[in-house]
Specification:
It is built from 9 helices and 12 strands. It is an alpha+beta fold. The protein folds into 2 domains: 99 residues, Phosphorylase Kinase, domain 1 (2-Layer Sandwich), CATH 3.30.200; 211 residues, Aminoglycoside 3'-phosphotransferase, Chain: A, domain 2 (Alpha-Beta Complex), CATH 3.90.1200. Helix 3 packs parallel to helix 6, helix 4 runs parallel beside helix 7 and helix 7 runs antiparallel to helix 9.
Amino acid sequence: MESRTKRRLTARELSLLAHRAVGAHVSEAVELADGFANAVWRLRLDDGRHVVLKLSPSPELEQLTYERDLLRMEAAAYPLAASAGVPVAALLQAGFDDPVLGGDYLVLSALDGTPWNQVALDGQATAALRHELGGHLARLNSVTGEVFGYPHSGLTGSTWREAYLRMAGALLDDALRYPATPLPRPVAELRALLEGASDVLDEVATPHLVHFDVWTGNVFLDLSGRPRIQAIIDHERAFWGDPLAELITPTLFGEIDEDDPLLAGYRAVRPLELSAGAHRRLDLYRAYLYLILLVENGPRQYPEADYAHLRDLATASLIRVLDRL
């Protein structure tokens, strides 16, 4: 997706950054344009290595509050995920506040698999992959932390309810700063609604690592034999919170179905109960994600033709969730 937040570097700037990061210049660079926020390139280096470079938006560029230092959260998440047995790319180097370009970058090992959203699979293969994905997400969610929320952006709390309301409140503040996309209800009404429903978040007592962006484009497959998951990528939106929130993006714009193989795979690793309170928590997380998809258009300024379908889906889905809440 084209976005104002994505950096544009010359070939020379890209090569010099790679040399500062990993000690080799760039022989070939291909931009990977599927992402929405950070600029990403697949690089062939002059020492023969293939890597992926992610570069944060320019430090002076306006972003949503929770997006501050997103790559720092991703840098922290990769080794935690790997230690839990989750397949991820190897983090080769992380640089913060680059002295030449400013901002942060990550260098990751390049994957040779195929993004799931680019593959046509039959029902049996899809079910097997969703079961496998559920297990990986359960392992990721087994990682626990010390504080709820986004530590690198300062949106944290000693309880999950406190952190969630700070996260959602910051997003609604951003909606007032960037009124590019109309919301289905006034910001004050949305704030009161989320606060009024938030008591159910007190059911969550421990911060768990949550990826919160597991759509099929962020899952790479190994298709050399029976399809299997090679790696889960793009941990930049990760936070410390309720493991239930992990179910939102794999079922984006839909609902949780009890016979989804994703749930069976998850439950094979760690318990997961979908009680009445759990369903209410899920709606709070859906509301948060759909608000992100609408509000982020303000600073990013997506092309209308590319964004319209996503905006309409997010708006309709948000209205359904708000009505339930």
